[in-house]
Amino acid sequence: MAKRRVTAIVKIQLPAGKATPAPPVGTALGPHGVQTMDFVKQYNAATEDKAGQVIPVEITIFEDRTFTFVLKTPPTPVLIRQAAGVDKGAANTGKETAGSISEAQLTEIAQMKMPDLNANDIEAAKAQVAGTARSMGIKVG
Predict the structure, then answer these.
(1) SS3 annotation, 89-130
(2) 107/103 Cα distance (integer angstroms)
(3) I want to staple 16 with a disulfide (CB 3.0 to 4.6 A). Which of 3, 50, 54, 115 is the partner?
(4) Cα–Cα nearest to 137, from 86, 96, 109
(5) What is the pTM of this model?
(6) Are 92 and 136 spatial neighbours (Cβ–Cβ below 8 Å)?
(7) Beta bridge partners of 74
């Protein structure tokens, strides 16, 4: 079987189980000739168990207008905000704190994000997550 040529790779973040063909899906896939409704049905079926989360997806579009997609882990800031129980980070990150997360929550988030991070071990992943928390004004520990 001949190898299919990739024409585009599209990355978007969508609410789990609630994607619609409206923007951003339609505007991202439409120019490549992909049937947006096919993608929406498959994405919603794959993410229906993760309702309430934002799940990034990487869509590979082939020359014959078919596609495959890979689900990623939720964005780190979303996981940190959920763990801290806040709606958003601090406005002045150096001067104010929006909330805090425990060392155990930091480890849990790092373990969840490990497949998508470029970290060799859990300690490096924890350092990356802690840096994101610090830039959001959320205290760790």
Answers:
(1) CCCCCCCCCCEEECHHHHHHHHHHHHHHCCCCCHHHHHHHHH
(2) 6
(3) 50
(4) 96
(5) 0.71
(6) no
(7) none
Cβ atoms within 10 Å, residue 49: 9
Distances (CA, A) of 112 to 56, 118, 126: 14, 13, 11
Query: Do residues 117 and 69 make contact, with C-beta atoms less than 8 angstroms apart?
Result: no
Q: Report the run of H or E that residue 78 belongs to, with start and end.
A: helix 76-84
pLDDT computed for residue 2 by the predictor? 56
pLDDT, tens digit, 9 for 90 and up, residues 90-108: 777 777 777 788 888 888 8
Q: Hey, is 48 helix, strand or coil? A: helix
Q: Between 103-113 and 76-84, two packed helices, what is the crossing angle to 10 degrees?
A: 150
CA distance linking residue 4 with residue 46, whole number of Å: 24
